[in-house]
Design brief:
The chain has 15 helices and 26 strands. By secondary structure, the protein is α+β, with helices and mostly antiparallel strands. The chain has 3 domains: 148 residues, no CATH class; 142 residues, 3-Layer(bba) Sandwich (YerB-like fold); 145 residues, YerB-like (YerB-like fold, 3-Layer(bba) Sandwich), CATH 3.50.90. Helix 6 packs antiparallel against helix 7 and helix 8 packs across helix 9. The protein starts with 19 loop residues before the first helix and ends with a strand.
Amino acid sequence: MAWPGNAYAEVVRNTRFTTTAEMKTKLGTSDPSVWNPVYLTEVENIYWNFANQNALGGTSITLDMAKNNYRNLEMLLDNGYTMDYSVLSAYCAEYLAKKNGEPDAFYNIMHGCLGNPYISGHPAAAVTATTYNGRDYSKVFDASYYLAAHPELAGTIGNNPPELLRHFVEVGIGKGYAGNASFNVAAYAAGIDAQVLATQSASASYKALGAGKSAPVGKYSYSWANYYGKYLGRYSGAVAATAAAAPAQAADPSGITDIDSQGPDGAEDSSIPIPKTVTGVYTETSSTSVYTGLPVSSAQANLRPLAVMMPTDKAAQPSYGVSYADILYEIMEEGGISRQMAIIPNWTGLSRIGNLRSCRLYYIYAAKEWDPILIHFGGVAYMKGVINGPDMNNISGTYEYGVGGKAPGAGYFFRSNDRTAPHNAYISASGVQKACVQQGYLTNLRAGYYNPKHFTFAQGGNDLSASPGATSATTIDLSDIYPYSRSSFTYNAAQGVYYKNIHGGPQTDAATGKQISFANVIIQNTKWSQLDKKGYLGFTMKDTTEDGYFFTKGKCIHITWKKTGDYSPTVYYDDAGNEIKLSPGKTYIGIAQKGRSPRFS
């Protein structure tokens, strides 16, 4: 790829807009956690070098401009799998429209990026033991060292140098992992940053600011990938990458792939691709909610939901935000107690969400089909290798799988003083948004992960009159399934919904004081096993052989269910083999250990 006059390589920072104070003013926020991870450094380098000098004193720079939906241009060259071609193309078109169709130098650079062969069409990376898309990583990567430093990869990749290098480039670099014993990226970055600071401080433009001026930021980049890119040199962009065969689906390092991560025949669903990285933003055009079958705004339809881990502990009731769950899961865990996972699509106005508890592996597989942002407070070792996979976007108040991993967004959780730990951990919608910016998570639906089709809804509701074997069910008792929480439902015929009870009384939302209710109740019988002496459980969340029950409008039918891939939806059928039609509204899904059944009358 040819850069005009090699200008990009010669970019000199305009220090007028690099002080912290000026960044706060220009970006309209004083919270560095919001604008630091957006990689403003490199965007500034490009934008202000080529912008009309008459505009430099204006306020044209905005957070959206800086973010550009893809972080920054230099990372495009360093790791093509961090940007989607269609997203960049759409942004270029939008930017050009704002410029009244007159391209400027900044537009020309962005548009030139579309010629990068590692972006266009998202070809698979060509990887050898030492090269990734033609770039030689031998100076910074040793497969034996990397495997020894990350023994968790032994079960998923093993002694496979090309795939270890793929992991290092696509996952490890972003997390700051060392690739060999000799190259310390942090030390290298410190040296580069020192040079940047010295250059800024000595520049005429900085000195011209006069006495009392703030110190320059002195930061080359907020991305480890950019430091590796500077050290190793640019991709030439001259030769398109040779598509390499995708690696075989790795085994779950927990050793329980037959329980949670594969179908009953041990094979992944080949019809639903599971990409390793985000393939762009999915635009939902339907004005009907995929969760409830009810009308929804375009903005709401395109927002990713939260999947929030909430307790059923009696001392933890009531929870904040649980009534906003369009889908509420309940599943047993160790210790004879259940836990809930609330799928909350309309979350941006919530000031307190929780309290929050830890996650389990099977909840992740229940969550994935909704393309959510997972909110939890730690987890267990069985989650390792799944929770920290490149497809997962999670925010955790502590180590993400309990005994290790990172704690993405932990700084945005808070504890209240009205309850004792562990029942007093929360997060706000603002905290979620800031954590997403910090971690680089998309808050809009992700193409390749989101499914526009989940449930089928019956217009006006389904009284099950056309379903074989329908029986009356105005009370539902799940105490045999969840003996601790004793979850149950009572049907309100006037409103057409089931009100939920817990511990013998109404389950309410602490934010509203109102009892939660659902138009649909699904009980999903599921194969399970006890994994160890501690009592940790595993559930077969992908299956085509199990049954359950569907309750709506005061009636019940027997059903079967199928789920064939991580991101494919769970589909429910009546005994005639027809997909069931839900009544519009919220849905409770109780995952029942096979052998335990609901009682209803």
